[in-house]
Amino acid sequence: MERIEHRACFGGWQDVYRHESKVLGCTMNFAVYLPPQAEKERLPVLYWLSGLTCTEQNFITKAGAQRYAAEHGIILVAPDTSPRGDAVADAEGYDLGQGAGFYLNATQEPWARHYRMYDYIVEELPALIEANLPASAARAISGHSMGGHGALTIALKNPGRYRSVSAFSPIVAPTQVSWGEKAFTAYLGEDRASWKAWDATELVKSAPEKLPLLIDQGEGDEFLVNQLRPQLLQAAAEAAGHPLDLRLHPGYDHSYYFIASFIGEHVAHHARALRGA
Amino acid sequence: MERIEHRACFGGWQDVYRHESKVLGCTMNFAVYLPPQAEKERLPVLYWLSGLTCTEQNFITKAGAQRYAAEHGIILVAPDTSPRGDAVADAEGYDLGQGAGFYLNATQEPWARHYRMYDYIVEELPALIEANLPASAARAISGHSMGGHGALTIALKNPGRYRSVSAFSPIVAPTQVSWGEKAFTAYLGEDRASWKAWDATELVKSAPEKLPLLIDQGEGDEFLVNQLRPQLLQAAAEAAGHPLDLRLHPGYDHSYYFIASFIGEHVAHHARALRGA
């Protein structure tokens, strides 16, 4: 892996790396914030999954999370949202193809070769981070919108792998909303039964580990009614006895101004799980 | 003035307005952060002047200043960096024309008609803010790079008008560096004597009010040696007995990661001047 950005930030370093991903079969960028404590010890890692159209840049330039990571001594890792490059399949529109990987493993052509963001996030990227950076194996995961879907499904599918999970404005039931239906039809095919393995509202019904879910959602979010629908997850979690803290915030929209306003509370939440006894 | 963006942020509102500027003869955008306290009282205002190539968006999306403004009860106003539009003169390159107004009043063609950012920032914009928003007449000013030059020169030229001034990585001596020489030749003409009225290092020699100057500068800044040269201002301030706190920060570069890391201290500095007895 090659470091392509290196900028002092809150006493630590906001870096961006480029590497050849075997899982995705393409060159990928990911961002790493190393807080000042990383000079002396191995630190836990909070993975952040971004939403539709984003790259590794959105979170690191707009969320203001570095301040809190420096306070708590946590590494932040923000990957890109899909495989990239001229050799990678793409589509018209912002909600399919590059920038819209949906954190799953595609089974259909022309996507199956490269669109394996699930394996990338769960296996390849943490292995790379833990082998090459001062990172411990203590992991937490969070994300926004499509990335909130990614964080929730990845945590629910991997008991024991993450100490905590949270999301902002997540797509909680992709099998029931048009963003998910479009993407899953393309990546997974017409058989809707196969979609359930990538839907937090389905997964929570039988999750073997009751990892508490923290979700912040703005009530002024322009996608709330048609694409996000957190009440679907809330009902399923309640029925399954799965702990969920769904916090609704009047006025806030889908933007990074919402994330910036509450990311400090999420980092503190993860810090308690990652650094607590 | 028309509100074109309105987003909840740290309990307040990050807004963007559009208006017809009489001074500049064009349509302008400016950003306003109203902290939660603005619902109940008139608040002091910190004006932020951005650098080359920026619009009203850079500071509000990248600096993370809203958190501190909400803590201290201060309105943030971030204007654009030049007049804009098809009818406004422009030039090739990022350092002259649109995006590069240098916060002065141009005297030369084709710039003199629209390039009057000094009058806009000192007179028209505060009048608009104070007439239409819950803003008091207590003002502070800060900025970055070209905007740091703007903040310093505007404060030095207007004794009593600002309660405090600060800058990140400012151009302190535009008459002695290539960015300034190019812009001043175009906007002000070949007579270098006329340039001195727009150069902080010149102005500090005879400033009637000894308003303390707070400057943060990264030692890893790629423009430090050729364009910024804060030691020129430091020597002039020392000779004139003008208080200057120049803080050099190892490793930090010219980016918003630097601004984000220290903007909290600047907002607190201005809050002491704006809200103190």
UniProtKB/TrEMBL annotation, chains A, B:
<dbReference type="InterPro" id="IPR029058">
    <property type="entry name" value="AB_hydrolase_fold"/>
</dbReference>
<dbReference type="InterPro" id="IPR014186">
    <property type="entry name" value="S-formylglutathione_hydrol"/>
</dbReference>
<dbReference type="GO" id="GO:0005829">
    <property type="term" value="C:cytosol"/>
</dbReference>
<comment type="function">
    <text>Serine hydrolase involved in the detoxification of formaldehyde.</text>
</comment>
<dbReference type="Pfam" id="PF00756">
    <property type="entry name" value="Esterase"/>
</dbReference>
<dbReference type="GO" id="GO:0046294">
    <property type="term" value="P:formaldehyde catabolic process"/>
</dbReference>
<feature type="active site" description="Charge relay system">
    <location>
        <position position="221"/>
    </location>
</feature>
<dbReference type="GO" id="GO:0052689">
    <property type="term" value="F:carboxylic ester hydrolase activity"/>
</dbReference>
<feature type="active site" description="Charge relay system">
    <location>
        <position position="254"/>
    </location>
</feature>
<protein>
    <recommendedName>
        <fullName>S-formylglutathione hydrolase</fullName>
        <ecNumber>3.1.2.12</ecNumber>
    </recommendedName>
</protein>
<keyword id="KW-0719">Serine esterase</keyword>
<keyword id="KW-0378">Hydrolase</keyword>
<feature type="active site" description="Charge relay system">
    <location>
        <position position="145"/>
    </location>
</feature>
<dbReference type="GO" id="GO:0018738">
    <property type="term" value="F:S-formylglutathione hydrolase activity"/>
</dbReference>
<comment type="similarity">
    <text>Belongs to the esterase D family.</text>
</comment>
<dbReference type="InterPro" id="IPR000801">
    <property type="entry name" value="Esterase-like"/>
</dbReference>
